[in-house]
Batch of 2 targets.
Target 1
Amino acid sequence: MLSKTSSPAKAGVRNDQELVDDYLKGNEKAFERLLGRHKRKVWSHIFLLVRDRELTEDIFQDTFIKVVNTLKSGRYNEEGKFLPWVMRIAHNLVIDHFRRVKKMPTVRSNEDHDVFATIAQPGKNVEQQLVNVQIDADVRKLIDHLPDEQRQVVMMRTYLGMSFKEISEHTEVSINTALGRMRYALINMRKMITEYDMTLDRM
């Protein structure tokens, strides 16, 4: 009797990694449970970024197609971090969408953490170049070389126009932490400009 009652209880609280392992062993229902467990949070995250239900559905489906393909190809190595991994895939697909349709705006912030204004301190010519182009290719390269957490904040703040409150909610950190990541990102970007002697008006 004890084993019979304990087995369903254990099955009911299987963690994400256990479900991933089950899915990789051929249990399709394990993936259905993973999807059911996390779909609302992933969908809501995408919708807040794109503000369009139809587009959200498309990116949501693309996210889980990529998840399935990665799992089945044996390239999944995010043990214990399934949801953050899925959220990162969804976020990157949103960024890819805005880049593809060339609708990613250059956001000028009223706050003290405007990436374009801050890294452009060496001179007005650089600032003008950064502000006037849609998304400067050299700036994108700088951002791509940032650590993941810093790059995510810069993308959300500068490209998607999210407030630091929204960023803190979606990255599940405090507002001060989000601000700190932005600050360190700007410091690192300025260092890269100096280190590589970059001239951002060279196109």
Note: The mean pLDDT is 75.
Target 2
Amino acid sequence: MADEKLNLFQRSLVVACAALTLLGFASCEDVPKAREGLITVQMAGATFYLEPALDDSKRIPGLGNREHIDADGGMIFAFTNRAERSFIMRHCPIAIDIAYVSDTGRIVTMYAMTPEKPQAEGERDWDYETRLKRYPSRFPVRFVLEFAGGRLEELGVSQGDQVLFDMDDLKRRAK
């Protein structure tokens, strides 16, 4: 739909761009553009375009079975409530960085997750999943972000850093 409203984050970028352009500090080409169906996230001076995982049909497989994650890609998980969460590397042949994010947009816990031994032929799903290392949030969170392995260290991201994205939109859309 051509007249679709821009989300709050995109509107904020447009207003900021206009103000900076008028003051001579930037041009609108400098503002990151949203990509169709992806969530724009800014952190540590970098812009990411993350796949939304807003229900269990997307959350459970997550980034499993991926052979590659773009440097500006990944996935953002949104839940309907705040709770302590724990993620595993289910069917993940590549390293993934994970950041658990509070409702204030701060990283509360983060990990560099490493690939696990693949599920063996004949290994029951239950046995496979229970042997995988757990990566706990340690605090109640609603949002979880995953990136290509090594990206958080490369950017110098640490616990307490601010992450910017349209939280209200994701809260509404989470199922």
Note: The radius of gyration is 17 Å.
